[in-house]
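Form 7-S
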Amino acid sequence: MRVFSGSLATETNTFAPMPTGLASFKERGYFAAGNHPDTMLFFAAPLWAARQRGAALGWDLIEGMVAAAQPSGTTTRLAYETLRDELLADLAAALPVDMVLLGLHGAMVADGYDDCEGDLLARVRRLVGPEVVVGAELDPHNHLTAAMTGNADLMIAFKEYPHTDALERAFELVDLCAATVQKRIRPVAATVDCEMIAVLHTSRDPARAFVDRLQSLEGRDGVLSISVSHGFPWGDVPGMGTKVLVYTDNDRAKAEQLARTLADELIGMREALAITYPGIDASLDQALAFDGAPVVLADGADNPGGGAASDATFILRRMVERGIGNAVIGPFWDPVTARIAFEAGVGARLTLRIGGKIGPMSGEPIDLDCTVVALEPDLVQTGLSGSPTPMGDCALVRAGGIDILLVCLRNQAIGTDLFTQLGCDLAAKKIVVVKSSQHFQASFSKVAAKVIYAGAPGTVTLDLSTLPYRRIRRPKWPIDR
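Output:
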């Protein structure tokens, strides 16, 4: 079997202030055709899975470009068209092929392109023709469109949030696509729009039980795959919203019936799925009053994994003003301040201006008398599905009783080793503030006595009613109750 695989992925926050350009892809992860490293990269999981299967089954695997950018604002036309055309050129050079496996996101928006994945898949289909099997792995925070489902034979989204199952879903994609090539199955798709935005934290019920039920249905009675697209509410495009995608083996009526049933179940539990997010002071009050430690506060509104700058000072400022100690907060994306800390060296005492540099949703910068506690050049934390996540040069500085983690590459807190590599003992802290919405859960839940999702201002605000939507289809719960 002759197989082609490549990736082009980013998550676009259309409300975020920073555009996503070519440099963003080069910084996060860009590998020209044939240069993918000997380790799994998060959005190249289909390529990694195809390597394993292909080696065992004697496939001829052609590896195309792999490119992924940290979530941010709208992708520039130059970046999207340049990378898209490079990937398509790699595919054209590989023809003929039996199967195409792509690592995508599903919520990439560029200047002139509301649906980058739909555009890319349509061009792939025109290039390879109707007989070649085309499959894609998606992040569940996607905008599932007709252009995507209409041009791919199979699309499978991660089921877990935090996304710990990228490789497992990639193997499912590879195996089902291979079975399609061999004509052992004939996937047909059905999609139902739930007309809402859901947050499926699989770290708790009812999402945990719902996803377990989906998986129990797969592989039985002709059901091939079930994916829930949570939607990405910070993307102001017509396709935004929660959808259910079901593939059956050549039984469209069954796919449509099951998708409708599961969508209705999801709609029925939407209130129970919703997150409670107390304000900053209420979150700090709860943390201080809790009998146990550490208490983890998630600053999801400043989550760089959702397109935020990761330099908002709103929570840090209140902690300083209230005299809260025995705490750590981060990561702050502040390369300038981190460089100053590196220049000064461990043990240096100096005044640092921290955060608040990108725009109004970053708050005002805060000036603090700090001591440089630890420095770690080119730190790499354990990221999603165990993939490496580089953070650049990292500095841990202390202001009063608060440790502040400064990083040079904009990534969210995922693994506890982000802090422990700098000597920070999380178990000894009363409060740990992480700039992350949910991906911290897999690692930090092992040390947290309690987790609080704080309702702070920011580019990835949880209060969707405050966002100036202009293009989404409405009404949509909970924006329109």
